[in-house]
Amino acid sequence: MLVQPGAPGQATRTITATRATDTSAIQATATDVQFMQGMIAHHAQALEMTALLASRTNREEMRLLARRIELSQSDEIGMMQRWLTTRGQTVPDMHAHHDHGGALMPGMLTPEEMSRLEAAQGQAFDRLFLESMIRHHDGALTMVNDLFSTEGAGQEPEIYAFASDVDADQRIEIDRMSAMLLEILK
Asked: Which domains does the chain have, with CATH numbers?
Protein backbone atom coordinates (compact mmCIF):
# COMPACT_ATOMS: atom_id res chain seq x y z
CA MET A 1 0.00 0.00 0.00
CA LEU A 2 1.08 3.55 -0.79
CA VAL A 3 0.04 6.88 0.66
CA GLN A 4 -1.24 9.39 -1.91
CA PRO A 5 -1.24 13.06 -0.87
CA GLY A 6 -4.57 14.77 -1.19
CA ALA A 7 -5.25 18.02 -3.00
CA PRO A 8 -4.58 21.16 -0.93
CA GLY A 9 -6.75 20.96 2.17
CA GLN A 10 -7.66 17.32 1.51
CA ALA A 11 -6.55 14.29 3.52
CA THR A 12 -4.07 11.72 2.24
CA ARG A 13 -5.34 8.28 1.35
CA THR A 14 -3.97 4.78 1.01
CA ILE A 15 -3.91 3.28 -2.50
CA THR A 16 -2.55 0.14 -4.17
CA ALA A 17 0.61 0.15 -6.30
CA THR A 18 -1.49 -0.60 -9.38
CA ARG A 19 -3.71 2.41 -8.74
CA ALA A 20 -0.64 4.60 -8.21
CA THR A 21 0.81 3.81 -11.64
CA ASP A 22 -2.41 3.58 -13.68
CA THR A 23 -3.50 7.08 -14.64
CA SER A 24 -5.53 5.99 -17.68
CA ALA A 25 -8.82 6.24 -15.81
CA ILE A 26 -8.25 9.85 -14.77
CA GLN A 27 -10.37 12.14 -16.91
CA ALA A 28 -10.41 15.88 -17.29
CA THR A 29 -13.12 17.62 -15.28
CA ALA A 30 -15.27 20.61 -16.18
CA THR A 31 -13.02 22.67 -13.89
CA ASP A 32 -9.96 21.50 -15.85
CA VAL A 33 -11.59 22.62 -19.11
CA GLN A 34 -12.56 26.00 -17.65
CA PHE A 35 -9.01 26.46 -16.36
CA MET A 36 -7.51 25.82 -19.79
CA GLN A 37 -10.05 28.05 -21.54
CA GLY A 38 -9.47 30.86 -19.05
CA MET A 39 -5.70 30.51 -19.17
CA ILE A 40 -5.74 31.00 -22.96
CA ALA A 41 -7.30 34.45 -22.49
CA HIS A 42 -4.94 35.15 -19.59
CA HIS A 43 -1.86 34.30 -21.66
CA ALA A 44 -3.22 36.25 -24.64
CA GLN A 45 -3.35 39.43 -22.58
CA ALA A 46 0.23 38.84 -21.39
CA LEU A 47 1.27 38.65 -25.05
CA GLU A 48 -0.51 41.95 -25.75
CA MET A 49 1.34 43.51 -22.84
CA THR A 50 4.74 42.23 -23.95
CA ALA A 51 4.15 43.43 -27.53
CA LEU A 52 4.16 46.99 -26.17
CA LEU A 53 7.74 46.72 -24.95
CA ALA A 54 9.39 47.00 -28.37
CA SER A 55 8.35 50.62 -28.81
CA ARG A 56 8.08 51.80 -25.22
CA THR A 57 11.20 50.74 -23.34
CA ASN A 58 14.87 51.60 -23.64
CA ARG A 59 16.03 48.70 -21.45
CA GLU A 60 17.45 45.59 -23.07
CA GLU A 61 16.63 43.47 -19.99
CA MET A 62 12.97 44.45 -20.42
CA ARG A 63 13.06 43.32 -24.06
CA LEU A 64 14.65 40.01 -23.03
CA LEU A 65 11.98 39.50 -20.36
CA ALA A 66 9.27 40.18 -22.95
CA ARG A 67 10.84 37.68 -25.36
CA ARG A 68 10.91 34.94 -22.68
CA ILE A 69 7.28 35.58 -21.77
CA GLU A 70 6.26 35.72 -25.43
CA LEU A 71 7.96 32.43 -26.32
CA SER A 72 6.75 30.46 -23.32
CA GLN A 73 3.18 31.73 -23.33
CA SER A 74 2.75 31.40 -27.11
CA ASP A 75 3.86 27.76 -26.86
CA GLU A 76 1.55 27.19 -23.90
CA ILE A 77 -1.42 28.69 -25.76
CA GLY A 78 -0.82 26.21 -28.58
CA MET A 79 -0.63 23.35 -26.09
CA MET A 80 -3.87 24.44 -24.38
CA GLN A 81 -5.66 24.75 -27.71
CA ARG A 82 -4.54 21.21 -28.67
CA TRP A 83 -5.53 19.88 -25.23
CA LEU A 84 -9.03 21.30 -25.58
CA THR A 85 -9.43 20.16 -29.21
CA THR A 86 -8.32 16.62 -28.36
CA ARG A 87 -11.04 16.46 -25.71
CA GLY A 88 -13.74 17.87 -27.99
CA GLN A 89 -13.99 21.08 -25.95
CA THR A 90 -14.56 24.63 -27.15
CA VAL A 91 -11.34 26.48 -27.91
CA PRO A 92 -11.95 30.15 -27.11
CA ASP A 93 -10.73 32.91 -29.35
CA MET A 94 -7.48 34.24 -27.90
CA HIS A 95 -8.92 37.74 -27.80
CA ALA A 96 -12.25 36.83 -26.21
CA HIS A 97 -11.20 38.75 -23.09
CA HIS A 98 -11.78 41.97 -25.06
CA ASP A 99 -15.50 41.18 -24.98
CA HIS A 100 -15.67 42.11 -21.26
CA GLY A 101 -19.14 40.61 -21.07
CA GLY A 102 -17.97 38.52 -18.15
CA ALA A 103 -15.50 38.98 -15.36
CA LEU A 104 -11.80 39.08 -16.17
CA MET A 105 -9.54 36.30 -14.93
CA PRO A 106 -7.58 37.10 -11.76
CA GLY A 107 -4.76 39.58 -12.35
CA MET A 108 -5.89 40.68 -15.79
CA LEU A 109 -5.79 44.35 -16.68
CA THR A 110 -9.01 46.23 -17.27
CA PRO A 111 -9.38 48.16 -20.55
CA GLU A 112 -8.53 51.37 -18.67
CA GLU A 113 -5.36 49.84 -17.19
CA MET A 114 -4.32 48.56 -20.64
CA SER A 115 -4.86 52.07 -22.04
CA ARG A 116 -2.61 53.56 -19.32
CA LEU A 117 0.07 50.99 -20.13
CA GLU A 118 -0.23 51.72 -23.87
CA ALA A 119 0.17 55.46 -23.22
CA ALA A 120 3.28 55.18 -21.03
CA GLN A 121 6.86 55.50 -22.33
CA GLY A 122 10.39 54.95 -21.04
CA GLN A 123 10.95 54.43 -17.33
CA ALA A 124 7.30 55.15 -16.50
CA PHE A 125 6.29 52.37 -18.89
CA ASP A 126 8.88 49.98 -17.43
CA ARG A 127 7.58 50.55 -13.89
CA LEU A 128 3.93 50.22 -14.89
CA PHE A 129 4.63 47.16 -17.05
CA LEU A 130 6.49 45.36 -14.25
CA GLU A 131 3.85 46.21 -11.64
CA SER A 132 1.09 45.09 -14.00
CA MET A 133 2.81 41.89 -15.13
CA ILE A 134 3.64 40.92 -11.54
CA ARG A 135 -0.06 41.31 -10.70
CA HIS A 136 -0.96 39.41 -13.88
CA HIS A 137 1.35 36.51 -12.92
CA ASP A 138 -0.08 36.54 -9.38
CA GLY A 139 -3.48 36.09 -11.02
CA ALA A 140 -2.21 33.00 -12.85
CA LEU A 141 -1.03 31.61 -9.50
CA THR A 142 -4.54 32.23 -8.13
CA MET A 143 -6.01 30.32 -11.08
CA VAL A 144 -3.67 27.37 -10.47
CA ASN A 145 -4.49 27.40 -6.76
CA ASP A 146 -8.21 27.48 -7.52
CA LEU A 147 -7.78 24.52 -9.88
CA PHE A 148 -5.92 22.41 -7.34
CA SER A 149 -8.31 23.43 -4.58
CA THR A 150 -11.30 22.04 -6.46
CA GLU A 151 -11.92 18.42 -5.56
CA GLY A 152 -11.09 16.10 -8.44
CA ALA A 153 -9.67 18.86 -10.64
CA GLY A 154 -6.07 19.08 -11.81
CA GLN A 155 -5.54 15.33 -11.57
CA GLU A 156 -5.40 14.37 -15.25
CA PRO A 157 -1.64 13.97 -15.95
CA GLU A 158 -1.33 16.59 -18.69
CA ILE A 159 -3.21 19.28 -16.83
CA TYR A 160 -1.43 18.48 -13.58
CA ALA A 161 1.97 18.85 -15.28
CA PHE A 162 0.94 22.03 -17.10
CA ALA A 163 -0.58 23.73 -14.05
CA SER A 164 2.45 22.77 -11.95
CA ASP A 165 4.76 24.23 -14.60
CA VAL A 166 2.71 27.44 -14.77
CA ASP A 167 3.00 27.76 -11.00
CA ALA A 168 6.78 27.28 -11.00
CA ASP A 169 7.45 29.47 -14.06
CA GLN A 170 5.25 32.33 -12.88
CA ARG A 171 6.90 32.35 -9.45
CA ILE A 172 10.36 32.54 -11.03
CA GLU A 173 9.29 35.36 -13.34
CA ILE A 174 7.67 37.25 -10.45
CA ASP A 175 10.98 37.09 -8.56
CA ARG A 176 12.87 38.27 -11.65
CA MET A 177 10.42 41.12 -12.32
CA SER A 178 10.39 42.17 -8.66
CA ALA A 179 14.18 42.53 -8.76
CA MET A 180 13.94 44.54 -11.98
CA LEU A 181 11.29 46.78 -10.44
CA LEU A 182 13.47 47.45 -7.39
CA GLU A 183 16.31 48.45 -9.72
CA ILE A 184 14.04 50.88 -11.61
CA LEU A 185 12.72 52.42 -8.37
CA LYS A 186 16.23 53.18 -7.07
From this structure: 28-185 (1.20.1260.10)
